[in-house]
Structure formats: C-alpha cells, structure tokens
Amino acid sequence: MKKIKTYILKLNVNGEWKKAEVNPQETLLHVLREKLGHTEVKEGCGKGDCGACAVLLNGKPINACLTLALQADGQSVVTLKGIGTPDHPHPLQESFVKKGAIQCGFCSAGMIVTAKGLLDENPKPSREEIKKAISGNLCRCTGYKKIVEAIEEAAQKVRHMKSEARNSKSETNSKF
Known about the structure:
By secondary structure, this protein is α+β, with helices and mostly antiparallel strands. It has two domains: 1-82, Roll (Ubiquitin-like (UB roll)), CATH 3.10.20; 84-168, DNA polymerase, domain 1. It has five helices and five strands; from the N terminus they run ββαβββαααα. It has a five-stranded mixed β-sheet, with helices on both faces. It starts with 6 loop residues before the first strand and ends with a helix.
C-alpha cells in the first residue's frame, strides 16, 4: 500500500501562526477542528450547503468544508473566536444575543462570520444585501427575520464606533 505524502501547513488563525501536518485531501474544516482544536467551526452538511463551517479566509467568507487545507497555506483564517471575546464581544455577537437571533446556536458561528465578512466589505448593507450575503447559511430554528435584524443593528453599531474613533482621532490631532 502506497503511503500518502503529507505536507506542513502554516496558517494564521485568529492572529496566531499555527502548523499542522496534513494530507492533500484534508479539508480546512477537518484541520481546524481536529488538528488545531478550533471546534467553534461547526461541521453541518459537509457539502457546502449549510454554512455552519464558514470562516474568513483573507477576509472573505468561505465554507471550510469545501476548501482543501493546503489551499489556505500561508493565509489568514478568522473563526468566530477571532471576531470577539467574552469580555469584548463584537457588535454582531451582541446583536445576535439581544435580538434573539441565536436559539440552538449551531448556525450562529457561521452566520456571524459570514455577516462579519459582509460588514467589512459593505458597512451599510441594505436588507436585500444582508439576505443575499447569508443565503448560504441555513438556520432551522429562528427563521431569518431576527438574524437580519441583528445584522442591521450591528452594522449601525459598527458605523457609529468607526465614526466615534475618527472624531476622537481628529480631536487628538487638532490639539497638536
């Protein structure tokens, strides 16, 4: 029996460089969960239909179950844990809780990661743009009304935070 060649994969996961020995056919989902311990990335369908495994690869949402790990070599991966912390949650995480957009929680990580990718690219999305962005993420509990409302609220918060940061920077610069 022929031995499968393995490779050393280097990933920047949530701001920290990590290495793993991988086979060419291993998915990014498998490596993140089983080799690097990032169980916040969920395995749903394994076919790219549900979005539970969504991560940001160089800032863009992708399904980790459809991406070979070696395709991400040397790149940046952000999971839910890279978006906020329990002490400093991202506005998306706060809004999902506040609006009741989390019920069983299985889709939440992928949904929030996908929404983060949207807001990074488009800080003022329309309702239709939000719906389109999350169209690859399935939720069997809430329906989508509360999820869309949570993303809208978070977008508003993020814009407000950025505006405040610009204003305080302007005030600081004008003092010198």
